[in-house]
Amino acid sequence: MSTQVHASIDEATVRQISEELDEPEWLLETRLEALEALDDIAFPDVIQTPGRKWTNLEELDYESLVDPLDAAEEKDQVGPDDVEVLPFAEAVEEHGELLEERFGSVVDPQTNYLTALSTALFTTGTVVYVPEGVDAEDVKIRTTMNSRSLFNYTLVVTEESSSVTILERQESGDEVDGNRYYSGIVEVAAAENSYVQFGNLQDLDETTYTYTLKEATVDTYGTVDWVDCNIGSHLTKSSVESHLDGDSSESKMVGAFYGHNDQHFDIDARVWHNAEHTTADLVTRGVIDDEARSVYEGVQNVGREAWDTNSYQRENTLMLSDESEADASPKLIINNHDTEASHSATVGQVSAEDMFYMTSRGVPERLAKNMLVEGFYVPVLEEIEVEELREDFESRIRDRLQARE
């Protein structure tokens, strides 16, 4: 096990972070337990094919990438008046009991090496609390990263029969010498009959290595929909997961990415059907160009008690270059026969037939290909309720396509 970070980040560092944020003892103890666990737990699972590990997270030089005491950012956290959207430190002060109950209840801080590292070192975050019966739109969390490393934490708690739509966005600000590291942990605890759509746009610069884990628990008749858009960073490891723990709970996971140059995207989508009458729909679409690489893993896990399950998964990758690489591994794990489920994955190039159709009608070849790429994302874009996220992602796709010309 690598101890690069553990050798340079010690208990004194963690205590200093906690003291500067004026945290309670229970949170400091959680941090210290996560720090101690670094010696014993593994890095996140990645897909391996014979003779090849597609994403080598353990080979990153964390000692040079991680500098939590020098964290710097600009953060914009806004929402309607009847929803609380608070900086993490303020939420600890105002809702201490809620935080003590919910922190780490969805994402185990010791899930893997990188979650433990993030738990020990996070310096910034947001808590979104939606009271019972409140319908909220336009909660927005924008983070501009101005330092070498940044560890970010987001907690969303919805009470019974409430709803909320959230946009979270990361981008780079001030330049730094060398590479960067960004870590983002998101926990969503959705109560009975509540609805959450959580949309994320990761647009960090291409000197950044990114690890994010977004995970939800969904109670009876609840719904959590994820929209996970990745266009930035040099290496991205992004996992989105839902636990359907209540009867008739639902989750939809919509993913989109666009890689160029030598970017690397490792995308996971996972759902656990743990109760009766649950439904999940996993849809991911990605484009890779130049020497970019992508790997996708989708898992639908149907438990023994998950009667009357419906679970569907589709992943499509469009390759614009002969030098790009893509791999996909959709999986079904079914332990209950009363299940309707399917999974599929495709990798291919722009259709020659579609290109011929458009160019034969006078559309220039480059424009025709760009139009087909934009059209490829339409099934994803149609699922995004947050207008700003949809427009921003479309704009970034157009910028990247125009840069090819």
What are the key terms here?
405 residues; 9-stranded mixed beta sheet; globular
Can you characterise this structure?
With 405 residues, this protein is α/β, with parallel strands linked by helices. The protein has one domain. 24% of the residues lie in helices and 43% in strands. It contains eleven helices and 20 strands. The strands form three sheets. It has a nine-stranded mixed β-sheet with strand order 3-6-8-10-12-14-16-18-20, with helices on one face. The chain has a nine-stranded mixed β-sheet with strand order 4-5-7-9-11-13-15-17-19. The chain has a two-stranded antiparallel sheet with strand order 1-2. α2 (11-20) runs antiparallel to α3. The radius of gyration is 21 Å and the shape is globular. The termini are far apart. The model has no long low-confidence stretch (mean pLDDT 92).
Compact summary:
The protein is of the alpha/beta class and 405 residues long.
Layout of helices and strands:
Elements: H1 4-8, H2 11-20, H3 25-37, E1 48-49, E2 52-53, H4 62-65, E3 73-78, E4 84-87, H5 88-94, H6 96-102, H7 113-121, E5 124-130, E6 135-145, E7 149-158, E8 163-172, E9 180-190, E10 195-203, E11 208-218, E12 223-230, E13 235-244, E14 250-259, E15 264-273, E16 279-288, E17 293-302, E18 309-319, E19 325-334, E20 339-349, H8 352-359, H9 365-376, H10 378-381, H11 387-403
Parallel strand pairs: 5-7, 6-8, 7-9, 8-10, 9-11, 10-12, 11-13, 12-14, 13-15, 14-16, 15-17, 16-18, 17-19, 18-20
Antiparallel strand pairs: 1-2, 3-6, 4-5
